[in-house]
Amino acid sequence: FFFGSAMSVSTSNKKTMEAEAAVIIGDKVLRDVASAPPKTASERGHYSWQDLTYHLGAQGSGNTKKILKGVTGYCCPGQTLAILGPSGAGKTTLLDLLACRNKKGVYTGELLLDGKEPTRAALKNCGGYVLQDDVFLGFLSVWETLNYSARLRLADASPFERESRVDEVLSVLGLSHVRDSRIGTQFIRGLSGGEKKRLSIGQELVTNPIILFLDEPTTGLDSYNALSVMRCLSRLAQSGKTLIYSIHQPRSNIFQTFDLITLLTDSGQMAYFGPAKKSMDFVQAGCGLKVEPYVNPADYLLDLVCTTPADGDDDQRLDGIGMGQHMASTYRGSEWAIATEKTINEILADLKRNQYEAPMPRRSTGRFMQFWVVASRAMKNNLRNPLKTLVMISISVFFALLIGSIYYQVSNNVNPGIQNRAGVLFFLAMNGAFSNLGSLELFLEGRNIFVRERAAGMYKASSYFVGTVLMDLPLPLLYCSIFTGIAYWMIGLQANWHCFFWYIVISYVINMCSYSLCLFVSCFAPSFAIANLIAPLVIVMFLLPSGFLVNIADLPVYWRWLKYVSFFRYGFEALMINEFSGLELTTNPSKFAPHRPGKPVMGDDILEERFNFDPSGFYADLGICAGQAMLYLFFAFLCLTFLQKETR
């Protein structure tokens, strides 16, 4: 197409070139800009926007920052529109504005979808948005991923209709050959980058949207996969859909797949809008630049809008203004801009003449169905990752045998029986508290999936939270059961089923508190690294007022508040009461009467005198500990709902 890079401005014959350009422009430009005429107004998806300006900050505050300035354009069924520009030009901002996803700024101008002002809800109903990053549950297959998306979004469709739609999407996107392949993770090989991108597109296509927005669909792909994705998008447009996407530094054969382009300068102004194949005509005839053959149009255009007054040769400085600013000012008064306005007016007039009945809004899936789909999806993904489960079970067995062998059949004497029993109970409780740090990954790894799917209207935060937690929680409780079942009898704690039962219950509650606390941290921490620092620190602080490392009555005044918020203190106290209540410990024989044992010591007395624990507070400790677990879960849900949103 074009290769290399060349640009030159001849200021001496500029007037001559402009005169020649005036001859070229005229009616030819009007025909060229409308060379890809919109389909009939009976087809939905005619999008137009005029004089869009977008800024951050309140107007008149002095801190206003304009991101976009006077952007105009359109895209109709059967067309693709590529948004080009240097980094920071506002490509993604414009895309988000067209998709009604901007939340922080304020815009002025006119946005019309099929002649009506679009809303976020309307675009959720009839459109799709493909994010730049491709995130999936790696142990699901391609077909399962699309089917779960269809089940969450096509509430009115029968199972047969949903499955037929999924098969159709697989065929359209060229993914039928990997239908049953696992997507893959960072440790397990799966789909290629291009296949993952097409799968991301497929998740939006299951609803058969009339308009599709894509944020830099070729980022991170090699040249072959990038071209494959763009050709796939062209085929989708030819089927009657409207496609709008931002793109960064496309190569020449990708540029050929564009129908329309919007070229933005680094200041957010529009340097060109129109057919991609006529962009070089505008550069030559409109801007008076000479374009040598074999130039990649995309590279050439981006080089132009990035040229500042200090860059390039003297001929390119244009009397102290940047080339991008020069192109923007040239375009505003050109026949290309007039032709764009004329085409938009024709589209709107055609829409008024051909009124159609807007489709009924797509009914959202019920809360229970959302919960069920999310839960079954999470369960299937977990069951297909047996290595993690086997490793955790092995660790639980190893530590149980290790502790059981160290404290094997703990002594029933006062000394060292008290120290050993209290020490092993403290360690068992501490193991339960720290063993759930792995749950930090639950919402951190799935955060991008949650944000994307909730933004698309697939489910409510409550459905996702409950479904995900209920499918993940049994595993930590399984590890806890294995550990306690082995360690309890090897250590030789009270050998009756009543004490063993309550020991299991207390261990579950301690694990639940630790699990809930880690979920809470993972829902507000910005990254796994930070969450992995916060959670252990909080747990260590909760160990201090447990009554084992330091007597609760001896805590400094400024740290006594910790004993009221420490779930570990209540859990450890409950374990101690369960073990020592009713326990008789023998004293060592006197050195003067080695064959006569001393008077037995009751465990209840030891609890009060040595540890300052109240033996009657067992159920209160258990209830407070369980209440804290529920409280942490509630805080985690609030953070997931209100903090984990799109940052636009």
UniProtKB/TrEMBL annotation:
Subcellular location: Membrane
Keyword Transmembrane: yes
SUPFAM superfamilies the UniProt entry points to: P-loop containing nucleoside triphosphate hydrolases (SSF52540)
Keyword annotations of the record: ATP-binding, Membrane, Nucleotide-binding, Transmembrane, Transmembrane helix, Transport
GO molecular function annotations of the record: ABC-type transporter activity; ATP binding; ATP hydrolysis activity
Parts of the chain that traverse the membrane: 389-410, 464-488, 500-521, 533-553, 618-643
Domain ABC transporter: 47-292
Membrane disposition: Multi-pass membrane protein
GO CC, alphabetical: membrane
Pfam families reported for this sequence: ABC2_membrane, ABC2_membrane_7, ABC_tran
Entry protein name: ABC transporter domain-containing protein
Species annotation: Eutreptiella gymnastica
